[in-house]
Amino acid sequence: MNKTERIRNNAFSLAEDIINKTGPRLAGTSAAKEAASLLHKEVKFYTNESHIEEFYLHKGAFLGWIKILVICYILSLGFLWFNLPYLSLALSLISILVLVLQFFFYLPIIDIFYPKRKGYNVVGYIEPKKEIKKQVIISGHHDSARVFNFFIHQPALYNLRVTGAIIYVLIMVILSIISGIFKNPTLSISINIFLSLGLVLIIQMWFFASSKGTPGAGDNLIASTMAIELGRYFSENKLDHTRIIITSFDAEEEGLRGARAFAKANKEKLKEYPTILLNTDCAYSLKELFFLTSDINCTVNLDSKLANDLVDIAKNNGYNALAKPISFLTGGTDAGELAKIGVKATTLVGMPWSNQSRSSVYHTANDTLDHVEKEIIDAAINIFGDYILFNDTK
User: What 8-state DSSP symbol labels residue 134?
Assistant: First the structure.
């Protein structure tokens, strides 16, 4: 068995053990805490220093904009039927503002209205043999996502249902203004009827996400266990000048709250030396391999040079790979939060990253290890490993 196979097999075994012991690991639950403890048990065995960093999150807040959108639309429509178009306009603008800030930019605009819970990041440091000149963070996230019902029932209509609902809210804003300006009874009734038809799209959004969690194998426990096993390798084969930081974030599915807490708590340490983040998210299929050059709905730039360097290494290893920006309205990864504080960051992805075509198991109860190709994990190990070794001697 070669190095890559050993690292990969250990990563799969550890992920399987954690899934069997914890089940779904929604952030802010005891299952996520137990997963962090199990991961830390491995990390502390071989690192020079390790710990679990606790932080606070507001459970359920990240997707809270969805129900706000539904409630505001229904109330806005009622105000229009009662000939109160400017109240309708005000509520519609509020729902759009929450959508933009909470989802487009991942800002905690409504978090305080949701229950406060603890999250748990796992962190371990592997010191080099000689003077530290740079740092490389290898990361994944161990919390699992809520099941997205739209990916189970009529997944081909996902984009139409979500984007269509958002478009209807935007139309509500425009037509509320028109109704208020012209005050024509016939026009107002026509507008109200048209917007009432939008309830078909709007009301279904209430059932967008289940309260149940996924097993979270490909999204994203295997990334965390792979990072841990890569760390184990570098603890046995220490680098000359590169400090390796193994990190498993919590609460990625709650709007990257774990990565944000880690960046805030370790900002000075991460600026002490040139720091690079090699993050992995949704590594399912080798043929879909790519590296992100932007994040958080294209609102944060990642390091394009880093992404392209990894593409070159991938091709040298015989893998087809691309560097490309994240698709708008598809969310974000933990790399975005580290990039905000100046860390050179990218995320390795192995899945079509668009709302039209995602892995068939993404955010469903079928996100199990048998749907994660061994080849994509081998590729990640080889690409990250080669990059780290090359840059240590560079």
Answer: E
Name the band, by pLDDT with cuts 50, 70 and 90, for residue 182. Answer: very high
φ, ψ (nearest 5 deg) of residue 272: -65, -35
**DSSP 8-state class, residue 356:** S
pLDDT of 16 reads 98
| Greatest distance between any 2 Cα atoms in the chain | 80
109-156 per-position pLDDT tens digit: 999 999 999 999 999 999 999 999 999 999 999 999 999 999 998 888
306-320: pLDDT as tens digits: 999 999 999 999 999
Taking CA atoms, 211 is separated from 59, 146, 162, 207, 346, in Å, by 11, 6, 18, 10, 30
Instruction: State how far the Cα of 306 lies from the Cα of 315, in Å rounded to an integer.
Output: 14
Residue-wise over 90-109: b if at least 16 C-beta within 10 A, else e?
A: ebbbebbebbeebbbebebb
Q: Which residues contact 357 (CB under 8 A, 6 or more apart)?
A: none
3-state secondary structure of 326: coil
Strand 300-301 versus strand 294-295 pairing type: antiparallel
Report the CATH architecture of 3-60+116-145+214-393.
3-Layer(aba) Sandwich (3.40)
Residue type, 370: D
Q: What is the pTM of this model?
A: 0.95
What is the per-residue pLDDT across 24-76, written as a single tens digit (0 to 9) for each? 999 999 999 999 999 999 999 999 999 999 999 999 999 999 999 999 999 99
Domains of the chain, by residue range, sit at 3-60+116-145+214-393, 64-105+152-209
Q: What kind and span of H or E run contains 10?
A: helix 3-22
CA–CA distance, 93 with 173 (Å, rounded to integer): 7
